[in-house]
Structures are given as structure tokens and as C-alpha cells.
Amino acid sequence: MINLKNWFYERTGIEAILDFLRKKQVPDHKYTFWYYPGSILLILIGVQIITGCLLLLYYKPTIETAYESVSFITKYLPFGSFLRSLHAWSSDLIIAIAFIHMFSTFLLKSYRPPRELIWISGTFLMFILLTFGFSGYLLPWNELSLFATSVGTQIAGSMPIIGKYLLLFLRGGEYISGDTLTRFFALHVIILPLILLALAAVHVLLIQHHGMSVPPSVESSPAKKKDIPFYPDFLLYDAVNGLFVFSGLVILALFLPKELGIKADLLAPAPAGIKPEWYFLFMFETLKLIPSMVLSFEGKQLGVMIFALGAVFLICIPFLDRWSAKNKRSPLFTLIGFGILIYIFVMTAISYLGE
Amino acid sequence: MKLKESLFTRRKFLNWSLTASLAALFGTAVGPVWRFVFPGEVGPEPTEVELKDFPELLPGTGKLFKFGRHPAIMIRTPDGKLKSFTAVCTHFECTVQYKKDTNQIWCACHNGFYDTNGKVVSGPPPRPLEEYDVAVEKDKIIVSRRGVPKGEKPKEKA
User: Fold this and answer.
1) For residue B1, is it within any domain?
2) Do the interacting molecules here have an ipTM over 0.95?
């Protein structure tokens, strides 16, 4: 009888990959904890793909049917409310963990050469994840999401030069309509997932190529660091972390199911208490606080410009931090990292307390 | 005079041809894709709408209606005047509403306030709301954009 395993191995050449994984070593030191968020993100993206595919079986992306189909999923389908909550809570966790992952790699200076492209692909992944959240928020077509989308697309539309085209691209016209919903649907279920998978593949493959980054303080004294095998040691840690996070996710979805709200009406005024998802609150609050005119600039355009420049700055960090590149201490960039973190925290807190 | 060796090898020629063909292929695709993705002119916005069966507004109330592709607001001020404005906030394009207690037009998104002449009172909106002309006829109200001469206004019945 043919040995099935050998037959498969000979035809796929998978042995080389397994061999790589068996020999792969992961650095173990006092900051090893910060390696975990990355793999938790991969697990949660898996949860999103599975729950998203299931929701797609019933969701109908038109303004007449979107709200009703989500309502049907949550009210009448067995486990419908649970699945939708799982998808929505998982998206919240993904953004939260992606923020933790980004800031931990920022503060540990993991972007040092030769890992610049890992940082850049990671920054773009962060933007893609935020766009995922933004596009998914509109899909149930409820009142809050409609106006959050109106503001969000206008923010994109206020960017210099490309703004006008970006707004038309996102809305499918001058104003929000059924065309906006179908565009967001297309973005959310096919365009963004393809980009995300491609970028994530590049990100993970580059990490395999260069290995995990070791913080400069550990790298300078080899005694503080040892290596552990990826298989089975590190994979077991990943599995345990994944189980914990997934259990937390199930508890959240069961005990704090996501509300559907009121159906969106294109001819209704914006309701009081309108706000975007929590991870956009710091931008929302900033735009609220900037006066209508600053010198000769419109306040909103200035705000949007600052955020756009902030995004460019994030991407360029590996090339700006010349101290880390030479393996020297870089207190300025540590300060900048904490500064951004504090700004996000304070603005989000003001937005919550201001209700 | 014939050169001893060619300046352009066959390999080079083929590489150039292939690259140029691929560039041409992608280049010709850009235009159609761009035009498909970006909606073209769907016709100009009407500059005048006729509102039939529009409910009678009591002083100090307001109601939204559709003006072409965007929402507009009709308000009756406490002193009985009928006024109309675009309902699209000049800040981030949320839909505004009339607030009876302060007799102001309010945008809930970023707490912007306009007076009943459309002027910004407080909050982040950078410009006033565009005001429309209101003409009440026997069984209808005609709302029209200012500064467009009569007879040039594409009409829309609502």
C-alpha cells in the first residue's frame, strides 16, 4: 500500500517548510511577552474570516434590506446574535491588540535595520484594519453608523488633492446613498480581505526571514537572552494565549451582545450622541475641538492634514530614528511613542466623559 | 555603412517589445477602470423643488425634505416666517435639525449651531448654511436656490 504521508510529502515538498519550523528558534528574554500580540492577531483574523463567511450567507447589502437582514440574523436565526456579536467584538479586539502590537514594537524599536519593511507593512496593515472596522460599521445600516460614515468619508474628502476623488470613490457619488453601502460591502468582504491577506503574508514572511527583533538593551548583553524552539515551546504559548483570548471573546459576545440600533434614514437629522467606533474617538474629539478657522485655514482641513501627516510620520519612523538604526539609545522616539499614546488616551477619555 | 555588430540585440528588442506591450495593456486599462469606479455626471442638481402636500408647520418647528440629491430643512420661525436652508452641515456634512428651545439650527455630530438666517453661531462649522428662497402658492411651496434667474431653473417635483 502506498504510504499516503510520503506520497503527499514528495508531491508538495512540504518537508522543507516543516523542517524550517522544527529548526526555528525564538529569542526568549524579559520582553518576550510583546511577541504574543502578533500571533493573537492572526488567530482573531481567522475568527473574522469564519464568522464573516457565516454572516454573508444571510446579509443583503441594499438600503432596503441591509438592516432587515441583520435584524433577521440576530432575532430569528439560531446563534445569529452570538455570531454577529462574535464578529463585532472580535473586530474590537483586533484593533485593540493591533494598537498594543504597534506601540510595543514602536517602543522596543523593532523597526531597526534590516526590519524597516516589517514595520512599514505593519503600519499599512493597521490602516487596513481600521478601514475594515470603518466599512463594517456601516453594513448594518443603522442611524449611528450612517452619520459616522458621513463624517468619516468627509474626513477622507478633506485631504488635499486626492480628497475629492477619495470621497467620490467611497460614497459612489456626492452624497451617501445605497451606492455607498454596496461599495462598503465590496470593500469589506473582498477588496480589503485580499489586500490584508497579501500584506499579512509579506509581514509574516519577512519576520521569518529576519527573525524576531530583539530590543537594543537585550541585544547589547547576550547574557540576558536565550533561544527557545518555535516548535513546540513557542507554539504552545501561542495556543494557550489564543485559547484565553478566544474564551474572553466568547464571554463578551454572550454577555454583552452588540445592539443593532435604529434603522438609518437618509432624510433624518443626525441624532444627539453621534459618535464613531471607539478607536476613531480621538480623531473625532480633535476635530470637535479645533476652531472653525485657524489663521487662514479651515479647522477641519487642518485637523485632517495633521492626521495625514501623522500617518506619513508613522510609516517613515524607521528612516527618521537614526539613533536606533545605529543601535544607540533613542529617548526622543521613546518620548514620541509615549506622547502619541497619551494623546490618544486623553482625547478618547474626553470624548467619553463629555457625553 | 554597415556596422560590424548590431547596437540592438534581438534579445533586447524582444524585452523592450514585451515591456512596452505590457505597459500599453495596463495603460489602456486605467482609463476604463477609472471611469467605471468614479461615477460621472448624474445630471445637475435641480435648483428648484415644488413641495406638494407639505405639512403645515407651526411656529417654532422645522421639517426635513429632499432637495434633489441632498436633504434640506424648512423651518417656521417663532414669528411665523417660513425659511429654508440646505440641511447639510458645512463642517462634516451631517444632517442638521431645528432646535425649538434655542430657536437655532443644530448639527449633533460636532455640536455646531446656526441661527435662523443660516449664520454660524458656535461650534466648528466653517461657513453658513445656504439659504433658499421660499414661495408659497395655493397648493404648493416652491423652494429655489438663490441667484439662479427664473426660467433657468431645472424643476423637480416632490
Assistant:
1) no
2) no
